[in-house]
Amino acid sequence: MDRAEFDVVGIGNAIVDVIAHADDAFLADNAIEKGAMTLIDAARAEEIYGRMGPGVEVSGGSAGNTMAGFASLGGRGAYIGKVCDDQLGAVFRHDIRAAGVHFTTPPLQGQPPTARCLILVTPDAQRSMNTFLGACVELGPDDVDEALIAASSVTYMEGYLYDRPEAKAAFRKAAEIAHRNGRKVSLSLSDSFCVHRHHAEFLDLVENHVDILFANEHEIGALYGTDDFETALAAVKRLGRTAALTRSEKGAVIVSGGTAVAVAAEPVERVVDTTGAGDLYASGFLFGFTRGLEPALCGRLGAIAAAEVISHVGARPEVPLATLLRSKGIAAAL
After folding, report:
1. Among 108, 109, 167, 176, which is most exposed with the fewest C-beta within 10 angstroms?
2. Source organism's superkingdom (predicted)?
3. Given CA atoms 136, 141, 142, 147 in this order, what sign does their dihedral have?
């Protein structure tokens, strides 16, 4: 792949995460679905926030996390996402730029406020997400910087964004620009609920517009209407493109050109918080992909990045991932 100005540009919901610990009783008492991402309105966000225990506020959003991880690996990344010109918007802009990611999307003036995700982490490390999208939903085709897409080897988009007509139009515009300039398009299915809500459109995206697909085993099963992973895998292989299908502690299966290879999960001493595991897997995989590495090694990089983020609270790396790769003797292969 040629050396464009940026390796990857991510497009997604610009969100500030508020993360707190909770037990299963708290989830039940507050009608929060465990392990899922639920969209909420402003009133529900205030209600849950008022009942949560002490929390940590960190910039998040799926594609934003991926790009922060990509920069931590040493990649040249950019990001497109919508925040408001408010306090949380300033936090998000500062954090993603401080991580080394190029971010110039103009903020909204006034309402709605910057999006926030209230994340409850239970003792089993599952995270239950309650998301008020706020300014995120204002992202549209006019925010897609054609020069930036053309200057990026891969355009990476998160399925979470795919709700409003404006966002769908932004997806299509970005994909068209990327392919017109000989670039690659990548999509994360994000969550099974996203797949169910937009099944026909996601299937069209995957089969006709996407070069690199990220999904866990539940998401890919939902896309192809099956509970059997092998059946879903066979459907992906028939596409003949690149896919990373993650399976938690069972590792991942990487598909490339109709062939599949299994990659083991990276050992973790203790799983603390699974928030961002898929996001960081994409960071590592795309880092390898944009350097022309073999699919299995791309998967190994994804596994290493995901293992780091699930070993602590929060969806962004606590240690430079480039340093982590050097400690494992992998940096020489990059």
Report:
1. 109
2. Bacteria
3. positive
Distance CA(328)–CA(321), nearest Å, equals 11
- Written as six digits, the tokens of 34 are 């465990």
- pLDDT at residue 2 above 70? no
Residue owning tokens 């205030």? 46
Domain 6-12+63-90+100-106+139-333 class?
A: alpha beta
Could you read off the pLDDT of 194-238 as tens digits, one per residue? Answer: 999 999 999 999 999 999 999 999 999 999 999 999 999 999 999
Angle, vertex CA 78, rays to CA 77 and CA 82, nearest 5: 145
pLDDT at position 333: 61
Entry pTM:
0.90
Q: Is the CB of residue 104 less than 8 Å from the CB of residue 80?
A: no
Is it true that the peptide bond before 123 is cis, omega within 30 degrees of 0? no
Look over the chain and give the mean of its residue pLDDT values, rounded to a whole number.
93
CB-based contacts of 176, cutoff 8 Å, min separation 6: none
Q: Which residues sit opposite 10 in a β-bridge? A: 79, 156
Please tell me what DSSP assigns to residue 248.
Answer: G
Q: How far apart are CA 291 and CA 8, in angstroms?
A: 11
Residue with tokens 């992906």: 236
Distance separating alpha carbons of residues 200 and 280, to the nearest angstrom: 27
Q: In angstroms, rounded to a whole number, what is the distance separating the alpha carbons of residues 93 and 140?
A: 19
Q: How confident is the model over 46-73, as pLDDT tens digits? A: 899 999 999 888 888 999 999 999 999 9
CA distance linking residue 74 with residue 143, whole number of Å: 26
Per domain, the residue ranges of the chain are: 6-12+63-90+100-106+139-333
- The reported pLDDT for the residue numbered 328 is 87
Cα angle, residue 275 at apex, residues 123 and 86 outer, rounded to 5°: 120
Q: Is 304 exposed, middle or buried (0-12, 13-18, 19+ CB in 10 A)?
A: buried
Cβ(157)–Cβ(11) below 8 Å: yes
Q: Taking the CA atoms of the chain, what radius of gyration do you get in angstroms?
A: 18
